[in-house]
Specification:
The complex is a heterodimer of chains A (148) and B (426). With 148 residues, chain A is α+β, with helices and mostly antiparallel strands. Chain A has six helices and four strands. Chain A has a four-stranded mixed beta sheet with strand order 3-2-1-4, covered by helices on one side. The radius of gyration of chain A is 14 Å and the shape is globular. Chain B has helices at 25-30, 57-70, 80-100, 114-129, 148-157, 177-180, 203-212, 232-235, 260-265, 300-316, 318-337, 364-373, 386-391, 408-424, and strands spanning 38-39, 42-43, 45-46, 108-111, 135-139, 160-164, 185-191, 217-220, 239-243, 254-258, 276-279, 284-286, 342-345, 354-359, 376-377, 379-381, 397-401. Chain B has 426 residues and is of the alpha/beta class. In chain B, α2 (57-70) runs antiparallel to α10, α4 runs parallel beside α5 and α12 crosses α14 (408-424). In chain B, β5 (135-139), α5 (148-157) and β6 (160-164) form a beta-alpha-beta unit. In chain B, the strands form five sheets. A seven-stranded mixed beta sheet of chain B has the order 4-10-9-8-7-5-6, with helices on both faces. Classes of the chains: A alpha+beta (148), B alpha/beta (426). Chains A and B meet through α1 and α3 of A and α12 of B.
């Protein structure tokens, strides 16, 4: 049960039940779709990017608690960041959820609650789906990304 | 093991006074070494049998004996081992013939899986008989393996795929069947038992109606073979496929049954060794059935393992297995229905021991992870039946599927596991 509590932290459950920045973004000039064929998680990430900076961000779709909470918290943490800063954050987040690092938690801020995911390798894709989708949206790719 | 010795109710046994031994689930469990382990500190509760079943010692030992003593290539050697391996392989074919009650062992084609069996029919019978503007009819509850091979065929031939709809319980709308069988319908593909919903289709009736329209029927028996007595002659099925690994045999071996007259007129599927009578660069003569469809060295050990698995099933008695599983289905359906927030997807009047369910507000993937930590293996996702999920407007389900070695105590463990899921998300 302890590693389950590690995975399903209160913050994560709360975000999955009441996701932030949820819904289409009318001012979006970038968007991408992300899909996890394994479990059917499906999200769209909307971005309003100006001068390389994420002015606004939102997401919409359905998925498990981990993927939904991760999408919600991703939108909070990249809002106002430059493209490079967001990509750097994703790289650190990826290391966190795959268990590759322990030292960078400070720079991840609230996102550190996802550390428990590293004990559940099959759930890494859930935690990173929204981030992969963000990356695709930032690069302006039109096609949908999958976690496969 | 933590399972209760008396977990199968006594009222179950009166019908079992046949020639087979009385069904004792605790004794049966001892035949499956893999079940005797702990997972995440809990006794393993394996409820993912619709994905693949576990293997009894009787099968494991036959396979290892084959590789320790008998391994050789078949149908070609004059030496002792080759003759012996050939005899064992062909004995397995006779066993499969009996399992399906086919009229002739030459109607039993060994393939890799049910999927390969369907692809074989699509690429041989289908390519020969389906042309531009023709129709292939399937149902709304098919596994992707009984959808995609027909889509590939229809795309190539500019034919159309038609679908028989299902109702909210997950039953075929039988009144639609005659309406969808038209003059251009060349084939009907239907599953015997739905992997996602558990529905047992009224196959004999379906085949009878199809035949009244001169439409041959391909049956996906992957989910039926472990649970039901199959009689292809009584059903009058034209083609019937199943996979070994779902009936306690290894992966990589499956069966295509086809009526002899149909198989005879079909072109070969793959070319190679074993499927020929003589080869020159000008002309090749194909071998007789069933070898015409068995190009290359087959999965000899797998076929022998399948034979052993069927022997094991026959020893326990399919009626006994079906009765035991039906008891589990009834008990699990009652138990899960009593949990607030749990909804069972697939409530057909005739069901195999498969329960797809969702929990309000909790994604199936999260259910699967939490149950796993309790040692309970269920499948979560779309079960390779995305159209079924679309029909019920859900992204996925959790699925508990039972086999002959499952117990009521394991159903209780599942119920407790679901309570734990709800507790985590409370």
């Amino acid at each position: 049960m302890s590693d389950l509590r590690e995975l399903y932290q209160e913050v994560i459950l709360e975000h999955s039940k009441a996701p932030r920045n949820y819904g289409a973004l009318p001012t979006a000039n970038h968007k991408a779709e992300g899909y996890n064929p394994l479990c059917g998680d499906h999200f769209t990430v909307y971005l309003d990017v100006e001068d390389g900076k994420i002015r606004d961000v939102s997401f919409q779709g359905s998925g498990c608690a981990i993927s939904k909470a991760s999408a919600s918290m991703m939108t909070q943490s990249v809002k106002g960041k430059t493209k490079e800063e967001a990509e750097k954050l994703f790289a650190q987040f990826h290391k966190l959820v795959t268990g590759a690092t322990n030292g960078d938690r400070d720079s991840l801020g609230k996102l550190a609650v996802f550390a428990g995911v590293s004990e559940f390798p099959v759930r890494v894709k859930c935690a990173t789906l929204a981030w992969h989708t963000l990356e695709a949206a930032l690069e302006g790719k039109q096609e949908s990304v999958t976690t496969e | 093991m933590s399972t209760a010795a008396n977990s199968v109710p006594q009222e179950f046994h009166p019908s079992m006074a046949g020639e087979t031994a009385e069904f004792d689930v605790e004794k049966v469990r001892r035949d499956f070494p893999i079940l005797q382990q702990m997972v995440h500190g809990h006794p393993l509760v394996y409820l993912d049998n619709a994905a693949t079943s576990q293997k009894p010692l009787a099968v494991i030992e036959v396979i290892s004996r084959y590789y320790e003593r008998d391994n050789a290539n078949i149908h070609r050697g004059v030496h002792y081992l080759s003759e012996h391996a050939t005899e064992e392989h062909e004995a397995a074919r006779r066993t499969v013939r009996g399992f399906l009650n086919a009229a002739d062992k030459r109607e039993i084609i060994f393939v890799r899986s049910a999927t390969e069996g369907i692809n074989l029919v699509a690429q041989t019978y289908g390519r020969k008989h389906v042309g531009a503007g023709d129709e292939v009819l399937i149902t709304a509850m098919e596994h992707h393996s009984n959808i995609v091979p027909w889509q590939i065929l229809c795309e190539e031939k500019e034919a159309h795929l038609r679908v028989i709809p299902i109702n909210d319980r997950g039953e075929l709308l039988m009144e639609e069947l005659p309406k969808l069988l038209g003059p251009r319908t060349k084939l009907l593909g239907v599953t015997h038992v739905s992997n996602a919903l558990g529905t047992i289709n009224p196959l004999k009736k379906i085949i009878k109606i199809a035949h009244q329209h001169n439409v041959p029927v391909v049956v996906d028996g992957a989910q039926a073979a472990p649970h039901l007595k199959i009689d292809v002659q009584e059903l009058d099925a034209d083609f019937y496929v199943f996979s070994g690994h779902k009936v306690y045999a290894p992966t990589g071996i499956g069966v295509l049954y086809g009526k002899r007259a149909l198989l005879e007129e079909m072109p070969p599927y793959q070319g190679g060794g074993d499927m020929i009578r003589s080869v020159t660069f000008e002309k090749t003569l194909y071998n007789d059935l069933p070898y015409k469809f068995e190009a290359g060295t087959p999965n000899i050990g797998g076929a022998i393992g399948l034979g052993a698995a069927i022997d094991y099933i026959n020893h326990l008695g399919m009626e006994n297995i079906a009765a035991h599983e039906h008891d589990l289905l009834v008990y699990a359906t009652e138990s899960l229905s009593a949990i607030p927030g749990v909804r069972i997807i697939g409530t057909a009047a005739q069901k195999a021991a498969v329960i797809s369910f969702i929990i309000e507000g909790i994604h199936p993937h999260d259910i699967g992870t939490i149950l796993d930590r309790e040692g309970i293996a269920v499948r979560t996702g779309h079960h390779c039946a995305q159209p079924v999920m679309q029909r019920f407007r859900i992204p996925a389900t959790a699925r508990a599927s039972f086999a002959l070695y499952n117990t009521r105590a394991e159903v209780d463990a599942l119920v407790k596991g679901i309570e734990k899921v709800k507790e985590v998300f409370a």
